[in-house]
Write a structure and sequence with these properties.
globular; 6 helices; Rossmann fold; binds glycinamide ribonucleotide; seven-stranded mixed sheet; alpha/beta
């Protein structure tokens, strides 16, 4: 794998729609990008995000998730073979084990649709609306063994209006996600 440009070889893991993958691909194509996306991995054969990988001619693979150990063993081999320096989880809906995180040894980032530490896990928009929160938002954080709990790299708020539904809030938050994921990568890589 060519590394002379100093860009980090990046793998993006997805499970579905892939709009964050699309924003990361867009960023990776900019002149000043610090990453090169060399691999997209999906645990779901029908993930729409695979279309973006194909369109941009990025090597992509579906690894069937029969059990965690088998999935992670295959993934680890693939990451090594591709000299991956950074993993970005982008709507990847499986939880990586502590053993995988230790063995990979390089940074793993995740984007989460809430203002962490609030609303770890699923249904974040519904929970924020039900709690009558004034703000929601998105967070990019380092992946640790404990779900949605690693160091926060970047976070941005959006206002929750009285008129907001789960759908409208999701749309607003997603728009922010697309902006902050590339910024968080720059922040992480520029800091060391
Ligand atoms: C995004 O909102 C992302 O933050 C969320 O899934 C969505 C994926 O959308 N991730 C999680 O909830 C992870 N816990 P996308 O496939 O269009 O990027």
């Amino acid at each position: 794998m060519e590394k002379s440009s100093g860009k980090k070889n990046t793998a993006v893991l997805i499970s579905g729609r892939g709009s964050n993958l699309r924003s990361l691909i867009k960023y990776s194509k900019t002149k000043k990008s610090l990453i090169r996306i060399v691999l997209v991995v999906s645990d779901n054969l029908n993930a729409k995000g695979l279309i973006y990988a194909n369109k941009s001619k990025i090597n992509n693979i579906v690894i069937k998730y029969s059990n965690k150990k088998k999935f992670e063993d295959r993934l680890l081999k693939l990451l090594k073979r591709n000299n991956i320096d950074l993993i970005c989880l982008a709507g990847f809906m499986k939880i990586l084990s502590g053993s995988f995180i230790k063995k990979f040894y390089q940074p793993i980032l995740n984007i989460h649709p809430s203002l962490l530490p609030k609303y770890k896990g699923l249904n974040t928009h519904n929970r924020a609306i039900l709690s009558k929160d004034k703000y929601s938002g998105a967070t990019v954080h380092i992946v640790k063994e404990k779900l949605d709990s690693g160091k926060i790299i970047l976070q941005k708020k959006v206002k929750i209006l009285k008129s907001d539904s789960v759908k409208s809030l999701e749309k607003k938050v997603l728009k922010i996600e697309h902006k902050i994921y590339p910024k968080a990568i720059i922040k992480l890589l520029a800091s060391g």
